[in-house]
Design a protein that fits this description.
Number of helices: 3
Number of strands: 6
Radius of gyration: 15 Å
Largest sheet: 6 strands, antiparallel
Structural class: alpha+beta
Strand order of the largest sheet: 4-3-2-1-5-6
Shape: globular
Length: about 130
């Protein structure tokens, strides 16, 4: 079942910004920088199947996430706004520098929804981060 609301926005100070949002067109995916704003309408639209949405919902529920603010009072880094609702609210938070248990797993699950020709390894995968590993 397609969610009623799906929005994940990550803003990094001096880094990459991401927006994954469900619209009537599908799952609109954007990757930008802090000096380039998001487009009003994305060039990249992914259409997950009902099966992919069901798997996503089940996997997120199994994480038993409890979003919480980090202990450090850091003023820079990243800000993440996430609101996902299927039949009921699945997840909603707006946190600076999220580091709660399961956050990386959640981000990976969202990334899997964004696989497409524009982002074959997902919107969060950055080739530059892995160039030194080769």
């Amino acid at each position: 079942m397609t969610p009623r609301k799906f929005k994940y926005e990550e803003t990094s100070f001096y880094g990459s910004n991401y927006l994954v949002e469900l619209t009537e067109r599908g799952l609109e995916v954007q990757h930008s920088t802090s000096c380039i704003p998001f487009l009003k309408v994305s060039d990249v639209v992914v259409k997950p199947t009902d099966s992919e949405w069901n798997n996503f919902e089940e996997n997120v529920r199994s994480l038993c996430l409890i979003p919480c603010e980090p202990d450090e009072g850091i003023c820079d880094g990243s800000q993440v706004e996430c609101h996902i609702t299927f039949r009921n609210k699945l997840l909603k938070f707006d946190i600076s520098n999220p580091s709660f248990d399961g956050f990386d797993d959640l981000k990976n699950l969202i990334n899997q929804l964004t696989f497409c020709s524009e982002y074959p390894k997902g919107v969060f995968f950055d080739e530059e981060d892995y160039e030194d590993d080769v």
